[in-house]
Structures are given as C-alpha cells and as structure tokens.
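Translate structure to sequence.
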C-alpha cells in the first residue's frame, strides 16, 4: 500500500469513527423526541422501548467521511476521475451515495411507521437498478476450472446484480436481532474486505486495481461508522440501527464486493465475500429453507434464528454476540489466508 492510499484509508476510517461516535447521541435524542421507538413484544429481546434510526447516524458519518477525504486528498480526486468504460469513479461514488440515500429514506419511514415487506423489497430493487445505471453491476463471474465468464445478456446482468444485493441487504437485516450483533459482524467483514482489497492490488490489471482501491476506502469508512455506532449499540443498547441501518450496511457490503473482489478474475472472487459474511448468509439460508419447508411466508417474523436458539439454551446476549464476533473473525481470517494462498500459487 502506498503512503498516499494509506493516508486516505486511515483518515476516512478515523473520520467515520469519530463522526459516528459524536452524531449518534443526537440521533438518540431526535428519535426519542419523534417517538421512533422499538417497542417490546413477544418475539423481541428488549423489555423497554429503545430508539431506532441508528442507521441515520452511520449514513451521515460514512457520507461525510468519504466527501471530506475527497476534498482533502488530491490523490482521492485523481482516483475518482479514473474512468471505467463510460463511467468515472466519481460518478460511481455519486451513484453509491444516491442509492444509499434512497434506501435511507425507505428505512427511516419504515422505522417510524412500518412498511409492508413487499414495499421494502421493491424499494431495494429500485436502489439496485439506480446503481446499475451508474455502472455498478456484476457483469460476470470467474469460477474454478473456467475463465472469466461474462454475462451476454443485460437482463442476466440485472438479475444477478439485484439478487446479489438483496442477499446481502436482507442477510444483515435478518442478523440484527441482538444488541451489537449485526453492527459488529459488518465491521469485521469491512476490515476483511479492506485487507483483501489491498492484497489483490498487485495481481490485477490497472482497471481492477482502481476499483479495489475505491473498495478499500469504502470498507474503511464503513468499518469506522460501525465501530463509532457500536459504542451505543453494544449490550445494553441505547439505540438500535433499525431497518435504516441494517439495510444500509448490507447495501454497502454488496457495493464493496461488486466494485471490489467480484471485478477480479480470481477463481475465489465469488466465494470470498460469502465467506467473509458467512454467519448472516448461513442464517438467512436456514431461514429461507425453514420457512419454505414449513410453508410460512418468507417475510414472517419468528424466533428461530441462530441467536434466538442460543438464547433458548441459556446463553446471554453478550455471550452470543461475542461468540459471533469470534466466528466472523475466524471466517474473515480464513478468507484473507485464502486470498494470500491463491495470490502465491496463481
């Protein structure tokens, strides 16, 4: 990593962390004043109303950190001016922030008034279609024993990109069931993607390297935003991220993987993101299978997630969350080691 990129990554991380740390208390007061509260009920763990809208603070911290670094560092602006086909990276950054803002509006409305699951799903699809118009899409995969396989149909590109984003957005949403659980897992995944992006720079073409650099910057900003918020979200939580936060975090992880590892021609490119976010992906897979097998609606709420089952066996919230951090860290380290191994043996 060059000192220029290192400076940007350190700066965007600490800016996002500090901003999230400082902004969240104001969000707590705002949500409390406007009565945006998560009320206790049978399937939930908390016993008293807790403010929502925590994702609003993370979004503001993330956005301000990225924009401030763009203003401060000429190297970031030169990187952003790099063109990928007919799209510059600056236009892609705009698309990412626009898509995030749309998702933020959907989340804040849902946290306040409640939206039907199908409405949120259509909103998520709309956001992904916006991103595709800014050039952020999955145009093919590299698979073992095959060369890079580009999609020959625009429709297939759209379907795969939409499916990928929905998987990540809803995986994080499903895992947001205990204080600090989803936020901590996303922070660990962000650090993992940051490390993998840096490791892959030396083995890719210049076009892909620029994408990996942008992915590294966004990963650092996302990790900082999560850690700053975790100060108030860890057990006992003073604020929940709500759908505002869980959808934004899942969305950003999908963005980072789409412009990062999935742009490479490495045969492990498809598997690294799924390994790094292993626990939420396992949970959503089991949930889909369970609900399909039981013939209940896919968006129905229940207490059968992995963390609910551990609670039923007598584990405390803190124990489950810390165990999840350890397991996510192990999966992240394995993904990093796999990247190093493939880089050495390619």
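Result:
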């Amino acid at each position: 990593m060059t000192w220029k990129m290192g400076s940007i990554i350190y700066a965007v991380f600490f800016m996002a962390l500090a901003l999230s740390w400082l902004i969240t208390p104001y969000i707590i007061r705002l949500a409390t004043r406007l009565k945006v509260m998560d009320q206790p009920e049978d399937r939930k763990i908390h016993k008293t109303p807790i403010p929502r809208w925590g994702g609003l603070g993370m979004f503001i911290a993330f956005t301000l950190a990225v924009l401030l670094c763009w203003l401060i560092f000429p190297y970031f602006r030169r990187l952003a001016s790099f063109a990928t086909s007919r799209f510059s990276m600056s236009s892609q950054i705009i698309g990412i922030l626009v898509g995030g803002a749309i998702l933020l509006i959907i989340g804040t409305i849902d946290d306040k008034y409640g939206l039907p699951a199908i409405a949120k799903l259509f909103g998520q699809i709309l956001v992904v279609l916006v991103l595709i118009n800014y050039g952020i899409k999955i145009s093919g995969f590299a698979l073992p024993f095959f060369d890079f396989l580009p999609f020959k149909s625009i429709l297939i590109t759209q379907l795969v990109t939409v499916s990928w984003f929905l998987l990540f957005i809803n995986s994080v949403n499903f895992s947001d069931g205990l204080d600090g659980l989803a936020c901590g897992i996303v922070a660990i995944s962000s650090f993992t993607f940051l490390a993998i992006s840096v490791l892959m720079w030396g083995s890719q073409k210049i076009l892909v390297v620029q994408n990996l650099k942008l992915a590294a910057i966004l990963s650092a900003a996302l990790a900082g935003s999560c850690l700053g918020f975790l100060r108030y979200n860890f057990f006992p939580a003073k604020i929940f991220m709500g759908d505002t936060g869980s959808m934004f975090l899942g969305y950003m992880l999908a963005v980072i993987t789409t412009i990062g590892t999935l742009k490479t021609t490495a045969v492990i490119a498809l598997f690294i993101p799924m390994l790094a976010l292993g626990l939420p992906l396992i949970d959503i897979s089991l949930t889909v299978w369970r609900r399909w097998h039981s013939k209940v609606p896919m968006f129905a709420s229940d207490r059968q997630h992995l963390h609910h089952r551990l609670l039923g066996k007598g584990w405390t919230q803190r124990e489950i969350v810390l165990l999840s951090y350890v397991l996510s860290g192990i999966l992240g380290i394995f993904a990093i080691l796999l990247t190093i191994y493939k880089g050495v043996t390619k």
